[in-house]
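Q: Start with the shorter request: fold the first protein.
A: Done. Sequence, then structure:
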Amino acid sequence: MSTGLIIAIVIVAAVVVVAALLAARSRRGGPHGLKQRFGPEYERVVAQHEGDTKAAEQELAERVQRHGDMRERPLEETERERYTARWTSAQEHFVDSPRESVTEIDRLLAEVAAARGFPAGAEYDDQVAALSVHHADHVDGYRRIHRAAQAPVSADQQSQAATEEMREAVLEARSLFDDLVTSSAGASGRHHAGVGADTGGHLPWSADRSRPKES
C-alpha cells in the first residue's frame, strides 16, 4: 500500500471521527438533556413545529452546536451601573410614554447582550438563538419586548389593552435584563436570576398584574 493511499485513508477516518463527535455533541444529553436545558424554550419550539419533537430537537441541537461554547464577557461595574440607570429611566417613562419606553428597553437589551459577547443586535435572530442557549428561561421576554417595539403604531396604541400588553412585555424582559447584568461570565445553560435582583430601581407600576398602580 502506497504512502499516499495510507494518508488518504487516515484523513478520511479522521473526518468520519470528527463528524461523529460533532453529531454526538449536538445531541448531548439526548431529548431529555435538551428539554432540561431549554425548559420553556423547548416547549415553545415544539409548539412552533406543530408538535414535531424531532424537528424541534434538531433545531435546538443546532443552536447548542453553534453557540454552546460561547463564554460571556463579564461586565465592568461602571457598565452595570450605566445599563441599570438606562433601564430605570426607561421604565420610569413608561407611564407617560409606553411605546417610547418599550423601544428603549428593546434597544437596551440588544446592547447589553452584545456587550456580554452575544451576536450584535443588528443580527437579531442570531442573537436570540444564542441567548436561548445560555438564558433559556428568560429569552422569550426579549422576543415579546421586540415585537412590541416593532409593532406598527395604531389608533389602539394608547388603549388600556395595548398598554397592558406592553407593560407585561416589560415585566418579562426585566428578567432577561437582570440575568444579563448579574450572571457570571462563562456560565451556560439555564439561568434563574430573580426579577430586580441587584439591579436597583423598581417598576413604575405594581408587578401584580391584577392590580396596576394608579396614576
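Q: Next, the second protein, separately.
A: Sequence, then structure:
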Amino acid sequence: MFNRLSERGPTARWLRRTGIALGCVVALTLSAGAWMTYQNDFAIREQRVTIPGPQQPLDGVLALPKSGNGPYGLVVFVHGDGPADASRDSFYRPIWETFARAGYASLSWNKPGVDGAPGNWLNQSMQDRAEEVTAAIDWARGRSDIDPDRIGGWGISQAGWVLPEVAARRPELQFVILVGVAVNWLRQGEYNLRAELRARNAPESDLATALARRDRTNQLLRDNAGYDRYLATGIEESPMSADRWGFVARNYLSDISPTLPQIQIPVLLELGEADLNVDVAETETVYRELVRPDLLTVQTYPRASHNIARENLDNGRDSVESFLVAVFAPRQIYAPGYLDNLRRYVEQQPARSTP
C-alpha cells in the first residue's frame, strides 16, 4: 500500500502544482483585466453629437466632466494630419480627462470621411478646416451646458495652420493651446525629411537623393501640375494618391507668420525637444517674435516627441513597451508634467466677455 501511494505521489503533486499555477495565471489575468479597465476608465462622460458644418455635418464627441450639470468651459480639439477619428484612437482621452478636472468639456469630431462621417478630409484646405472649427464654436456657444465666456482651443501639428487663424478671427476665445506646430509647410517638410533620415543614420547619399526628389515634386506643385503629370515623372518610389496630391497642392504654401501678430488672446505653445516632425526651435523663435509677449507661454519638454509623448514610446517606434503602456497605463504615454500643465493653464485663464 505504501508503495502504491508512493507511485501516485508525484502525479498528485504535479496536478496540484499545475492547478496552483493555472490559478495564478487566471488570477493574474483577471487582475490585469481589472487594472486595464481601471486605467482606461476616464473621468468623463462622452456624448455623440452632430455639429452643423460649413460643408457637411460633423460627427463629433462631446466629453463632459464626470459629474455636474455645467455650464462648463470648453476646449475645441483640432487634429493634425491624417484620417483622425474624434478621439484620435483614444490618444485624446487622457487630455479630455485632464480638462474635465479643470471644469472643461472637450469637443472633437471625426474628420470628413472617417468612421462613416460624410465628406473627404483630403478635399479640404486649411481655410476649410478653420471654417469647421468656427462652426463648431458657434454650435457650442448655443448649448446651455457650455459657458460661452470660457471656450478655448487645443490643436496639434497641422492644426498650427488652422487654429491660429481661428484665434485671430475670434478674439472672444479664452485661449489656444498649440502642440508641436510648425510655421511654414515647406520648411517643415524638409526638416522632417532630414530628421527622419538622421534618426535612421542614413548615409549622406540617401539624403541627397531624397532632397532631389523633394525639389522635383515641389517644382511640379509650383507649376500647378496635375496628378497624371506627377505620376508620369516617376519621382517617388511610393507616389501619393490622387486625393493626397490634391490636398498637398491646396495647402503646400501654408505659412502662419502673417497671422500671428493678429492674435489677441492667450497662447500656450507646447513643444517636445525630440520632435522629428517640426523644427521646434524655429517655431519658438517665430512665435516669440510675432505674438505679443504678454499673451504667449512656451513650455518645452525634454525627451518628448512631436505629440509630447515620451520619446522612448513614440518617434515611429512600434515596440512592445509602447503597446503595453498604451493599454495598461495610457496616461503615462505623455511626457512628465504635460497633463498637469494643461490643467493648470486652463484653470488660470480668466473668462472673457462675449461681445
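Q: Describe the second briefly.
A: Residues 2-39 form the longest helix (38 residues). The chain has eleven helices and eight strands.
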